[in-house]
Design goal:
The protein is an all-alpha fold. It has one domain (7-108). It has four helices and no strands.
């Protein structure tokens, strides 16, 4: 696929924006660990998705949001906000969704497009 045409990059960017907005939506701006995690990783996910979307081919750039999704998923335990219900659940759910949406390009990269056969 060419640049700016992979739906996975757009989904990943939207998830990053949603993550950035979660402290405001759940009134958790006073919990600094949870809020700053959402702000920083949210911005990094959006930037990683835009960076990956601008590439002509799915490449190593796709690993950036995948790694950020894993970091986001484990962040409630590492940074100590697993007890802050909605923020922890947001990190877990959005982390998994970022991992799946960005990771799907890595999995699909090895497959040939429809109608084409790979040389033997």
């Amino acid at each position: 696929m060419s640049a700016w045409k992979r739906w996975q990059d757009y989904v990943t960017a939207v998830l990053g924006v949603l993550l950035f907005l979660t402290p405001f939506a759940f009134g958790a701006t006073s919990n600094t660990a949870a809020a700053w995690t959402a702000y920083v990783i949210g911005v990094l996910v959006v930037l990683g998705a835009i960076w990956a979307a601008s590439a002509a081919e799915a490449s190593v750039l796709e690993w950036v949001p995948v790694v950020l999704g894993v970091i986001l998923f484990i962040s409630p335990w590492i940074l100590g906000f697993a007890g802050v219900g909605m923020m922890a659940w947001s990190a877990w759910i959005i982390g998994v969704l970022v991992f799946l949406s960005a990771g799907s390009l890595i999995v699909l990269r090895g497959r040939a497009p429809l109608g084409r056969t790979t040389p033997a």
